Amino acid sequence: MKRFQVYMENPVSYRDILDAASRIEGIAVRTPLIENLYLNDFTEGRVFLKLENLQHVGAFKFRGAYNRLSALDTTARQAGVVAWSSGNHAQGVAAAAKMLGIEATIIMPEDAPYMKIENTRAFGAHVHLYNRYTESREEIGTHIAAEKGAVIVPPFDDPYIIAGQGTIGLEIMADLTVLGIKPDAILVPCSGGGLCAGVTIAVKETSPNTQIYTLEPAAYNDTEQSLAAGHRIKLTPDSTSICDALMAPSPGELTFPIMHAKGVSGISVTDDEVKAAIRFAYQALKIIIEPGGATGLAAILAKKCTTQNKNTVLVISGGNIDPHQFRECIR
Amino acid sequence: MKRFQVYMENPVSYRDILDAASRIEGIAVRTPLIENLYLNDFTEGRVFLKLENLQHVGAFKFRGAYNRLSALDTTARQAGVVAWSSGNHAQGVAAAAKMLGIEATIIMPEDAPYMKIENTRAFGAHVHLYNRYTESREEIGTHIAAEKGAVIVPPFDDPYIIAGQGTIGLEIMADLTVLGIKPDAILVPCSGGGLCAGVTIAVKETSPNTQIYTLEPAAYNDTEQSLAAGHRIKLTPDSTSICDALMAPSPGELTFPIMHAKGVSGISVTDDEVKAAIRFAYQALKIIIEPGGATGLAAILAKKCTTQNKNTVLVISGGNIDPHQFRECIR
């Protein structure tokens, strides 16, 4: 009973993130942390970008997925895995499953970016499309998993997933330590909160004074509202967002207490601010960022976060954006 | 006399490149060397991309320019500098001049990419536009330099410029050494040959068996032809290329002997192959590459270079491409 309680309070430890780092070493991309002249000038500070758009499958999700799947035993591996995702978790699970020889079934919304659906299929996964507005992906996924006896790989509410994403925090701290820098703030795109919870645990262990922010689209700022209220709030949004990867209606059961306990705050951005960030990344940074991944840069450019004389880190979480949308952004 | 002869045979030494590395340390971006799952799968080898599109001004040219300008004495700095360039050298000189408080005048073709002209102006340089087909940029530049008593900063035929670009070779070797890898081949985009000559000196010092290739657009393959003939050939191209940065009609007086003595070979690619590479970089790598910078990737994707079971390095030399052209490439 005591052990269970400790687990619920502390489902992921710093040690779990170090273990995840060992599992993904030499397999995941050790993504670069870069600075840019224009961005430093504009912000009157130093801004470091952690380029997870250069990760396998073009998004950080590979880390958590590989950490989860590589920890499965032989029996579980033979039964296969099932996951649901708007796209990046889908690709992450598909790529990790292919590397480990595991069969994967992925439930994706039929309006997910074409690139994400195609890439998931290209890794050999079975893709099951559903209607985001009339069907429940959890129900479909649970049904398929029960039929196959397969393991469900949740997108964020899982200790292995959180620990895998947390390796990003370890790498940020390692690279900044070489430069003799402690980060004042880290801006993390947030859907269910797996990435943010993992990064928070990893960073706060060695730099307790660093402020962590979640970044969300204004229409889906459930985490910002939940953190302010001190409890989980579930939204029923009446508008949509171009940030297809960040449209969770509430933070996770495991992820929220972690973020809340560590003093994480929320920032939200508009679609127009996100488009401006994608355009800036094209012109000045020479990288492709998808809408959800550009939310931190959007906040910086819109002056929603103090950067003057500070060291700020942006987690650029992914780069999977369909050409028609990208072309529109850089017009 | 003997010293002069030694200089002409050996205008740039490995030591000069180490000195350049000290000068630019902490000022130029230490650009990442990345791998990609799709590219390794496709090539059946390991391909490493040196991302100089993430360098200041979006191109490697900053390195040579800063190395040249920071070596000027006080009198020369006060007189200012003059340079001519289709765009990336222009921006490199303008950015380095701004950092060092030097006045810069840049002669640019009026049909250079808009982004490159605007960025050069944004760094505070005086931009003088000329007609690429009816005027001589050398004459205009020499005239302005004589009037002002300013120092001419050549785009490639200068020992400091070559040594500055050579720092890319040092960084590639350092990063590969950490991985325990010797490169079998390095593919370097080539206009006048400053980048290739510098990289060749840096790499061959510690890895003499690495094969270096120059990459050129098919209509401007003067270096490929010169290296095959054993002497400098000047082309009078009757067609154009989308590779605006690689349209020199002949390799340099200083750069050619270096490349030739070290056994460099030439590869050329078509505009369509370059466009396919830009599209691939968008979809799979999540980075923006300009046409000239994408020539190495174009050669790999078009199977013009053996990659199976080999370690191949691509120098991604720049990312300054106008939106209308980029939009066309990813359509």
Automatic annotation (TrEMBL), chains A, B:
Keyword Magnesium included in the entry's annotation: yes
Key words of the record: Magnesium, Pyridoxal phosphate
UniProt key word Magnesium: yes
Domain of life: Bacteria
Tryptophan synthase beta chain-like PALP domain ranges (all copies): 29-318
Protein name: Threonine/serine dehydratase
Cofactor: pyridoxal 5'-phosphate; Ca(2+); Mg(2+); Mn(2+)
